[in-house]
Amino acid sequence: MDHQTLSYSIPEEEDDGSAVSNDYSTTIGALILGLVFLLGVPGNLFIVWSILARIRRRSVTTLLILNLACADGFLMTLTIFFVVYLAMQTWVFGEVMCKGLFYLCNTNMYASIFLITLMSVHRLVAVVFPRKASSLASRKIVRRVIIGMWVLVTVISIPSLVFRDLSIQIDETNETRLVCAPNHTLPRHVRFQYAFETVAGFILPYTVIIVSYVLILRRLRQTKFRRKVRSEKLILAIVVMFGIFWLPYHVINMIQVAAEWYTEESPMREKLDHIANTSRAVTSALAFISSCANPVLYTFAGKSYIKQNGFAFMARLFEGTSSDQTGTKKSRGMGRDTAGTSNVDSTNSTGPVIALQNGK
């Protein structure tokens, strides 16, 4: 199907500097997404396999990790379409795929962020309310919360479905390209979509994560247990990595929102639009990295188990199910400190320590 045929049903407009019109930006973005695909897909599939095949009794934390790995893994499989899009600088998958892929992408990005937030809240409950943790954060309640979360993310991702369209753009050399990009008819649509995405997908969840970990670390420093330095480092790595890779994406969102407050002829609007359009491909690719970083973090956290447990080291990391386990709650809890994760469903006196050791 050629552009002449498509022009009857797809709007044609001048190229004003779209996200795929900058050679440098699209090349960097494609390389990043290609690496993300190669690392993220097998890494997250390995986590899913480790939990489903190796762990019989799954804790609350393991359920959250399983859902996170599924969301991240599915998101990583979508990157191959965006690699092709950036490499060819034209959309070749049709209008339905244009809307559908970006909708699924947004859904799984929201799911990843919200699951990380749920993990931090779950740890907070186990640390601050150790005696009530089993009732406040039981597996039954968490399953319902997870189902509710998946319903929520499918709803709040609808703007990416509504405001995403396929168009034909003509550049300065009269070459045409198909662009799958947001199509906002009014300035308030731009402000709504990007401001809502940043507030709901970054500011609110990241605030909850930071506050939760501050309260957790403050509580743990008041206890007599000191074998938690490695766990603290893992938690801080998760939080910092999440912020580093997502912040540029949402900064561009806010730049695009700010541009809409200026008139069409304003030089400032032209400058802000140029920054947003030339940076969107790279910042979006960086955001994808956060979804492939988790397997890397888990591998570093459980590297002491690799020689002893082989491919089962990930299951050992999540549940502490190795042959040298002593069988007592206290020894299991202290042993898991080395790994950085454990089952936080216990409500005994070591609850606060065990709770923190639930790596992401």
UniProtKB/TrEMBL annotation:
Keyword Glycoprotein: yes
G-protein coupled receptors family 1 profile domain segment(s): 43-298
Swiss-Prot/TrEMBL GO biological process terms: inflammatory response; phospholipase C-activating G protein-coupled receptor signaling pathway; positive regulation of cytosolic calcium ion concentration
Single GO cellular component term: cell surface
Membrane topology: Multi-pass membrane protein
Highest rank taxon of the organism: Eukaryota
GO MF: complement receptor activity; leukotriene receptor activity
Transmembrane segments: 28-52, 64-88, 108-129, 141-163, 194-216, 236-259, 279-301
Entries under InterPro entries matching the protein: Formyl_rcpt-rel, GPCR_Rhodpsn, GPCR_Rhodpsn_7TM, Leukotriene_B4_rcpt
Biased composition range(s): Polar residues: 339-351
Keyword Phosphoprotein set for record: yes
Keywords linked to the UniProt accession: Cell membrane, G-protein coupled receptor, Glycoprotein, Membrane, Phosphoprotein, Receptor, Transducer, Transmembrane, Transmembrane helix
Compartment(s) of residence: Cell membrane
Residue ranges of the region described as Disordered: 323-360
Entry similarity comment: Belongs to the chemokine-like receptor (CMKLR) family.
Database matches in PANTHER family: CHEMOTACTIC RECEPTOR, G-PROTEIN COUPLED RECEPTORS FAMILY 1 PROFILE DOMAIN-CONTAINING PROTEIN-RELATED
Protein name (record): Leukotriene B4 receptor 2b
Taxonomic lineage: Eukaryota, Metazoa, Chordata, Craniata, Vertebrata
